[in-house]
Amino acid sequence: MASIQIHPCLLFLALVLCPVLLAHAKTAPAPEAPAPAEATADAPSPVSESQSLEHILEKGMQYKTFLRMLKDTQVGAQVVNQMQDSITGLTVMAPTDNAFNSLKPGTLNKLTQQQQSELIMYHILPKYYSFVTFQTTSNPVPTQATSEEGTCTVNITSGSNQANISTGVIDTTISNTLYADFPLAVYSVDKVLLSPDLFGPKSAKSHSATPTESNAKKNGTSALAPSSESEDDTNADTKSTSGAGLKGVKWGSLGGLLFMFILNLF
């Protein structure tokens, strides 16, 4: 059997090129995997003019006061922003101009800017309610207004053709549907919704005096002023302490004189 002879040059090239080829194979980058397609979230659709709360109220023609207060308190702008992102929608109870005119003179002027904002937010429910869903709504129903005690609420009761809303201060009827298409529902009410936090009876806690003050008033003395008896006790203690100190000084002086007299004897 004939032996195969390898030319020395081929052997040399094999020895030189093999390590180079192996090193290149190890360092060559792997082919990049195709990038996964990015999930594009559907952006919330912009609110159309027909869904604009301002447009709805202007079209109703008898909500000028409520519309003005929405603008003055910036609550209207908040409603627009919430409608862009809300997944539950909003419900607005819009009092008519006659409802505001029925308030006692100066009622709105007595409120601070913050209180006016709270009053307007009390007319907004943070959820979309169609008229039909009022029949199955659980009370109390939260509003956008808040107080020191938490979220301000209303109670809504509904029959087949009518819905009533109660705040604890006033009761009124939801008289008309101005707009109802998710995410916004706007209903007309014949009275301004007065919240207990702003218009309810004042809490006894905020106006009642403390027990100490009450007792002091009954006794005709000030709760902060010390009684004459305690003053006498204090004066007595002071005199006693002063007398004891003087006696100590006297005995100390006598002892020193006696010691000096004994030294003179020696």
What is shown here, in short?
It is built from 10 helices and 7 strands.
Polypeptide structure, described:
The chain has 10 helices and 7 strands. It has helices spanning 8-27, 53-60, 64-72, 75-85, 97-101, 113-121, 196-199, 204-207, 211-219, 228-265; strands at 90-95, 124-125, 141-147, 150-158, 163-166, 171-181, 184-189. It has a 7-stranded mixed sheet, sandwiched between helices. The protein is elongated and about 120 Å long. The model is unreliable at 36-44 and 203-231 (pLDDT under 50). This is Fasciclin-like arabinogalactan family protein. Residues 206-228 have a biased composition (Polar residues). Pfam families: Fasciclin. Residues 32-46 have a biased composition (Low complexity).
Descriptors for this entry?
alpha+beta; proteoglycan; FAS1_dom_sf; elongated; cell membrane; seven-stranded mixed beta sheet; 266 residues
